[in-house]
Automatic annotation (TrEMBL):
Gene3D superfamilies, per database record: 2.30.30.30
Source species of the chain: Kwoniella pini CBS 10737
Disordered: annotated span: 183-217, 400-430
Transmembrane region(s): none
Name the record gives this protein: KOW domain-containing protein
Length: 430
């Protein structure tokens, strides 16, 4: 859905800040159709974080007393409250239920048998009135959020609002933030201090659109796993082992002989040999999976990062638990008193409180985190220097990048040595 259309739900990100139109006069709707104001708002002037969403109760700050107040004259009996039905993110407008519900006469297309109708039927069709109720848009700054609606003078409203830090909500998979009422006006018992405002609940939960049976694939067929990838055990003893990436940072396969043989076979230039046919059948699912869902894609890298962090968190918990079990097995610091009373220690009369389970657990987890941080720094340093990990040797070895770095370093050293030799052999002639 385009950001120029009114929305009943706030999107997941901040895409409304980006202008999707080539100019401000593009995609104008006919005046008879219900649409937002034609006033174009520059992307830099659009509201970044929308704190008023569909379902909120608000009051009007502008307009006639008939629209704003309950007694249609002044605020002695309270303000009217309206429900936000839709929002227009690209024009900073909100649509309120009950505010100037205008009526537009929508013109429908003529029927296919219009020429065969009688004059009376044509006149009846041409004179018909198809009124559609539309809501007038109101600017975002001309409404004020209702904190407590008492249907009278006791209602309180948020006169100043702040937003919390933007974070990514993993459950809803969207950018989210907290809205905070910094100042509340109106009402007899107006609370003081910043207060967190809950978000309105949608009228009905959002459901993904169901596929069209005539055009789309049904869900039971779409979720069926039809691509079966071969395991690494089947590839390890073949020539395809060098073509399969072993880690996420591995470069793309440089050997294109098997793919060229497959293309030549399709064009009828050369038939596949038996070995090539087996390798093509083995590698084709891997090529397809790498093409359709790259291993370096954003989702896969995030998923790998998340899985590593989850595994690290489980290991941290296990390390703390094992440390507490070992501490209890050793007697819970029972020999601490005898050690402090020794003459060599010279702590006689000093009271030392034994450790608790929490302290033992936190000490073990802190040591585990320090070891992990040291290991990460070592890995990052080795990767930057061009080294690769060898499972056979069990240590880091120089890779192509490290060899290239060493070659450049040797070249610089040779240039420096030659320059120093020239300076040393330089003689001044009389």
């Amino acid at each position: 859905m385009s950001t120029a259309e009114p929305l009943s739900r706030i999107p997941r990100g901040l895409q409304h800040i980006i202008s999707t139109k080539p100019n401000k006069f593009a995609h104008k709707l006919p005046s008879r159709l219900p649409h937002a104001s034609n006033k174009f708002v520059q992307p830099r002037d659009r509201v970044r974080k929308w704190n008023i969403r569909p379902g909120d109760k608000v009051r009007l700050l502008v307009g006639t007393p008939k629209q704003k107040f309950i007694n249609q004259q002044d605020a002695t009996e309270g303000w009217k409250t309206f429900t936000v039905k839709q929002v227009d993110l690209s024009r900073n407008r909100v649509f309120l239920e009950g505010v100037n519900n205008n009526r537009s006469n929508v013109i429908h297309a003529r029927p296919s048998n219009y020429d065969n109708l009688t004059p009376n039927q044509k006149q009846s069709y041409d004179d018909q009135k198809n009124f559609v109720t539309t809501m007038r848009p109101v600017h975002y700054s001309n409404v004020q959020l209702c904190y407590d609606d008492q249907k009278g003078p006791g209602s309180s409203f948020v006169s100043r609002m702040k937003t919390g830090r933007t974070h990514f909500n993993v459950k809803s998979q969207r950018l989210d933030w907290n809205r905070i009422a910094a100042r509340i006006s109106g009402g007899s018992d107006t609370p003081s201090g910043p207060l967190s405002l809950p978000w309105p609940k949608p009228e009905k939960p959002y459901e993904l659109p169901k596929p069209d049976d005539d055009l789309d694939t049904s869900n039971n067929v779409a979720i069926r796993e039809t691509l079966v990838l071969p395991g690494l055990e089947a590839i390890g003893n073949t020539h395809a082992a060098d073509l399969v990436p072993q880690h996420i940072n591995a470069p793309s396969p440089s050997d294109t002989s098997f793919s060229d043989a497959y293309i030549n076979n399709l064009h009828g230039n050369r038939p596949l040999r038996k070995e090539e046919s087996e390798l093509v059948d083995l590698l084709m699912p891997l090529y397809l999976s790498n093409e359709l869902s790259p291993r370096f894609g954003k989702y896969k890298t995030y998923k790998a990062y998340k899985s590593r962090r989850e595994a690290e968190e489980l290991e941290r918990v296990e390390v703390g638990k094992l440390a507490v079990d070992e501490w209890e097995l050793m007697g819970r610091d029972k020999g601490l008193k005898e050690v402090t009373e020794l003459d060599e220690v010279a702590l006689e009369g000093v009271f030392i409180k034994p450790r608790t389970r929490k302290e033992v657990r936190e000490a073990a987890i802190t040591e585990f985190d320090l070891e992990n941080e040291t290991m990460r720094k070592e890995v990052n340093s080795n990767v930057r220097s061009g080294k690769i990990w060898s499972s056979e040797v069990g240590d880091w070895i120089d890779g192509p990048k490290a060899q290239n770095i060493a070659r450049k370093q040797d070249r610089r050293e040779r240039k420096t040595r030659r320059a120093e030799e020239k300076l040393a052999n330089l003689k001044l002639e009389a």
